Amino acid sequence: MSTHPKTFKNAKLVVANEVFDGSMTVDENGLIENIAAPTEVDGHDCDGDYLLPGLIELHTDHLETHYAPRPKVRWNTVSAVQAHDAQIACAGITTVFDALRVGMDEDADIGYEDMRALADAIETGQQEHRLRADHFIHLRCEVSAPDVLNAFKHFEDDDSIRLISLMDHTPGQRQFVSLDSYKIYYQGKKGFSDAEMDEFIKRRQERAGSLAPENRKQLSSFAQQRGIAIASHDDATVAHVDEAIALNTKIAEFPTTIEAARASHEQGMAVLMGAPNVVRGGSHSGNVSARELAEAGYLDVLSSDYVPVSLIQSAFQLAEEVEAISLPKAVAMVTSTPAQAIGLEDRGTLMPGLRADLIQVKLVGNVPIVRGVWREGKRVA
């Protein structure tokens, strides 16, 4: 990591409500010192590019692809975290919540031991200054899984955990309302006969009915006691949203219907959708599109989910395609709003006194290029 420049000049600064040509100075502690009119003093020349706050990613399970690149293949955990981190940083993400799974289905080829090993590697990487971005842990808790509470015990004393999501992928509800789609997916994956598939669905539904409500309550109670933010996941109905509100949920991840998104937004939850949904023009699983929510005013936060580079692209794309969304408003969805939702008050906005987590972006055609990344004023990519 190189020493930070004192001044960034010749930049299009994207601040809370406007974009203007100017310069920025960073102090010796890596904090934004001043934002001013254009200057000719020595410093880093941004060549007229945009200067944005570093992106903040709340939900990416991209790390698993580096750790388990092929079935039954496991990579060195520290090396996997470093590879993931490099891709995250070069996509302009300076703060990332790495999503690790607890609670596995019987067909999972990975376990909580793998997740614990990855968490340890993330923390080792932070301590040894191996990583470019600032990493926290997001636990994705499958509340219908028999082992979720036991797996969670291996993380409950970990101060890196700042977010948990309460997930339920039981067939016939939330993400998998359509049993036909669920059958196509699993029969293709597992080779089940129709009778085997029907038995598989029945078993999962019965298991969820007996386990999910109590697991959801216990996990949310623990999070509230520890001050850990809670996210709901794949809410489809107003009843799902009411349940989430009762558990003190702050973030609504990937609502599958506009009704659920509207209810979440109106109840004060930050509605999070996938940036790939924006870039692709719709949900890959046939649920409500992020653009539809954006046009209705119900979209608050974007997440790169499984494609790190989609985060910066989605912000510029929304600003271009949705009349009511300016570039500062779109940028807020990937910077200041996720920071506020998770309680990180020291970053996410170009403002004196906040961390100089910065990215320099050039827009060529409709695809942005991240040309420089700084974390606390030090260049990391």
Corresponding CATH architecture of the largest domain = Alpha-Beta Barrel
SS field, number of helical segments: 13
Unreliable residue runs: none
The radius of gyration computed from the alpha-carbon positions, rounded to a whole number of angstroms, is 21 Å
Q: Oligomerization state of this entry? A: single chain
User: What does the largest sheet look like?
Assistant: 8 strands, mixed
Please count the beta strands (DSSP E, at least 2 residues each): 16
Question: Total domains, how many?
Answer: 2
Mean pLDDT: 91
> Topology as H/E string?
EEEEEEHHEHEHEHHEHEHEHHEHHHEEE
- Strand composition percent: 15-25%
- What is the terminal-to-terminal distance? 8 Å
- In CATH, the homologous superfamily of the largest domain goes by the name Metal-dependent hydrolases
Q: What does this molecule look like?
A:
The protein has 2 domains: 1-53 and 349-381, Urease, subunit C, domain 1, CATH 2.30.40.10; 55-346, Alpha-Beta Barrel (TIM Barrel). The protein is built from 13 helices and 16 strands. It has helices at 63-67, 77-90, 112-127, 148-152, 179-190, 194-226, 238-246, 258-266, 275-280, 290-296, 310-321, 327-332, 336-342; strands at 7-14, 19-26, 32-36, 44-45, 50-53, 55-60, 93-102, 134-142, 161-167, 229-233, 251-253, 270-274, 301-303, 358-364, 367-375, 378-379. Helix 7 packs parallel to helix 8 (258-266). The longest helix has 33 residues, at 194-226. The N and C termini lie close together (8 Å). The model has no long low-confidence stretch (mean pLDDT 91).
